Amino acid sequence: MIYLIALATFVATCLGGFFALKFKDKLHLTLGFSAGAVLGLAFFDLLPESIQMSGTFFSTSTVALLVGIGFISYMVLDRLFILHGCDHDHDEHEGEHIHEQISNPRGSFGAGSLSVHSMMDGLAIGLSFGVSSGLGIAVAAAVLTHDFSDGINTVSMVLRHGGSKLKALKWLAVDAIAPIVGIVVGSLIAIPEPYIGAFLAVFTGFFLYLGAGDLLPESHHRHPTHWTTISTLIGMAVMFVVVSLTR
User: Which residues, at least 6 apart from 29, have a Cβ–Cβ distance to it below 8 Å?
Assistant: First the structure.
């Protein structure tokens, strides 16, 4: 059973990534949806899960502190280190070919963060099956519904920062394999829930910055249309429904 679930996570993530590549000419809409999905993931899934899993070991204020640490850490890395790699705001007259040649390291960093999150999802599946099959199946159902959006978000992150289709596919492969690695590791070890909750709190901060500080402004920057905003709202609504149905 657990191996079939691992395969399903791989397929779901790949389908989401291929969807994003198929409609990359509508990247502003995809980015809008991705921003909403990432923010929805942070608000409706990661944050409540981190509070719940932390239990009495970490107080709510400590969880909030960890979220802030995650947000600030990502911001510092983004602005002091990654941002110096290459700026994406070029003059419109430089030409599309030159624009496509420039790949900002922020795309890889963002995709890497999403891949680590996917591995944490897989870890949750593996650990849950260690408790009971019923719990494992419930957690797996929740993760599978996220994986399609994870694929979209990973590809969108790379393309948004000038990455090529090949680079997007490479990161999509990493993101698709990550939950499988997490499932295998989770089935072999036991990690106390409070510590998993602490990691989730930090990732909440990561994704709040990714969504609000990167994807959302970029989706609206070149295409400030009502449809972009609607795409963001749809992304958040989808994650809210998915999380609500799988809890």
Answer: 23, 219, 223, 227, 228, 231
What is the phi/psi pair of residue 66, to 5°? -65, -35
H or E element at residue 113:
helix 105-131
**Tokens 């991705």 appear where?**
34
Tokens representing residue 9 in the block: 């996570």
In this structure, what token pair is assigned to residue 161? Answer: 């920062």
Q: What is the pLDDT of residues 44-92, one digit of tens each?
A: 888 988 898 888 889 999 999 999 998 998 788 777 655 444 444 444 4
The residue type of 125 is I
In this structure, how many other beta carbons lie within 10 angstroms of the beta carbon of residue 191?
15
Residue linked to tokens 């923010």: 39
Tokens of residue 75, six digits: 């911001």
DSSP assignment letter at 41: I
- pTM check: above 0.85: no
Which DSSP symbol is given to 161?
A: T
| Structure-block tokens of residue 4 | 């079939």
Contact 196, 127 (CB under 8 A): yes
Closest of 177, 179, 174 to residue 118, by C-alpha: 179
